[in-house]
Amino acid sequence: MKKIRFVICVKNDGYEASLEVRKVYDLLPDVEAKGHGMLRVVDESGEDYLFPEDFFVPVDLPEPVQARITSLV
Question: For the whole model, what pTM was predicted?
């Protein structure tokens, strides 16, 4: 099974300053957070925080796209 590395924000209620709807975000592994219905995501500040899992949809990006996105950091 391929590891999901990116998610698209589909909801940002209460987190408008931290998340943009329709934007792709880096997903960091956090098994404990996942068990509580949360995901660890790098937000607009460049820091990673926990957000509700239902705010995001996993996305499987082609390798060249992933390389371009990660090289922007």
Answer: 0.83
